[in-house]
Structures are given as structure tokens and as C-alpha cells.
Amino acid sequence: MSAEKFYWQGKNFFDQENYEEALKHFQKALKQDPHHLNSLYGRALSFFKLSRFDQSIKDFTQLIRQVPDNATYFSERAVAFHLSGQNEKAILDFDKAVELEPENPYRYSSRAYVRDRMEDYQGAVDDYSKAIELDPEDAIAYNNRGLVEEKLGYAEKAKRSFKRADELNLPKRNDNIDRAGSAADVQTNTPTKNKAPQIEIESESNPEKPGLKAYMKVIGSVFSSKAGFKEFTSFVGAKFKKEK
After folding, report:
1. Which residue range forms the structural domain that includes residue 215?
2. What is the domain count for the chain?
3. Which of 17, 23, 29, 191 has the fewest CB atoms in 10 Å of its CB?
4. Predicted confidence band at 53 (pLDDT cuts at 50, 70, 90)?
5. How far are the Cα atoms of 34, 60, 73 from residue 67, in angstroms, in the given order?
6. Which tens digits make up the pLDDT trace of 71-130?
7. In a domain, 5, yes or no
């Protein structure tokens, strides 16, 4: 069977979220044609979905060597670095994604998220501000910028950011779910006035503690679109809160 046929079989399994079978077929495709880029990308994503981050990073690195101007490869490798605890490397990859796509607001939001996790709060604010400049209708960026501005003690600036997020109709959740803390580090259960609420995504298997499987389902290619980034930051907020 040709590499292309194995690839499409693998893609079919991947779309069904059967990542083990998808991986097997992408492996077969690459055995037939080691330079089959779609299969290499599919294998990188399959490793990622299976939480085999080191192998995913290795495949994304190979993809980047072959197509060095693809911002998505850098962005997705950055997410793998982030999830494996290598935030400095993640930032370098996000820097490259920004360089390649300077007009894509979600590249800045992606980097801002990791900068926030690294406690580079001013850097995170700067990136969220740039994302807002490029997409003035992005309620999530306003909301997340406000959360970081609070960490810096910029109460009035944060209030303005939250107000604008509310004006852009960020979807609401119940008031009994905490609104304090960052999108990735929610710590209190006290509703706070003026803050645009975050949306929680629960794990089907355990609603009290979202697991890695559900986390991986959400994260996929999150840093390529507004909807994906919104879903990612919301889920991670719930995950970190439950694990504290």
C-alpha cells in the first residue's frame, strides 16, 4: 500500500480520536516514504495527543527543518514544550511564530499565556495589548490582560480591560464559580466585580479534577484560532484550580 493510502487511513483514525491506530498508520506511511510531510505532521500530532511530548517535539523539529517558514509548526512545538515543562523553549518557538506571522493576533495571545505562567507579567500584558491592537473584538484578550494587570497592581487598567471584555459579550458562567486569578492560575472562590468570567470545561471521567486526556483533547491546535485559544485558557484555568 502507498504512503498516501496509509496517511488517509491514519487521518481517519485520528479524526475518530483513535490516536494509537492513527499513529500506527502514520508510521507505516513514513516507512514507505520517510519524506511524506502530512504523515510526519500526523505522527507529531498523534504523539502529542498521546502525551508523548518528547517524540512529538522531535517530529515537529524535523518538520521545521523541512519547512522552516511554517508558523504553525513552531506554535505547536511550543505547546508541546510548554506541556513538558520547557517554557523557555516554548517562548523561543512562539517568538519565531510571531516573527513569521506578525499580523496574527493569536500568536501574541499564545506567547502571552506562557509569559503569564512564567511570571513575566509585563511581557504578557504587552502581548495581549498587541493581540488587541490586531483584533479589537477579542474579548478573551481583554479579559486575560485584565487578569495580568491585576497581578501588576494596575487596578484601574484592569477594570477598563474587564469592562471592555464585558462589552464584547464574553460568555457568562454562574456567579458561584470563581472569577479571580489568571486564566491559568485561579485561586479563590470569591466572585469579583467587573471581571469577565471564565468558562470551565469539565472532564467527563472526573468532573472534580480534569484529567490529562481531556486536557489534551482541548489543546490540539489551540494556538491557531481565537476559539481554540479561548477553550484552552478556560480549560487550563479549571485544571490548575482543581489541582491546588
Report:
1. 69-243
2. 1
3. 17
4. very high
5. 15, 10, 9
6. 999 999 999 999 999 999 999 999 999 999 999 999 999 999 999 999 999 999 999 999
7. no
Positive or negative, the CA dihedral 166, 171, 175, 176 is negative
Query: Residue 48, exposed/middle/buried by CB under 10 A (0-12, 13-18, 19+)?
Result: buried
Specify the CATH number for the domain of residue 154.
1.25.40.10
18 in any annotated domain: no
Q: Give the containing element (helix H, strand E) for 173.
A: none
169 in the Ramachandran plot: left (φ > 0), alpha (ψ -120 to 50) or beta?
Answer: left
Domain assignment present for 90: yes
Phi, psi of 185 (to 5 degrees): -150, 70
Whether 204 and 85 have beta carbons less than 8 Å apart is answered as no
Give the span between the Cα atoms of 182 and 144, in whole angstroms. 7
| Amino acid letter, 187 | Q
Question: Has residue 39 been placed in a domain?
Answer: no
Q: How far apart are CA 45 and CA 222, in angstroms?
A: 12
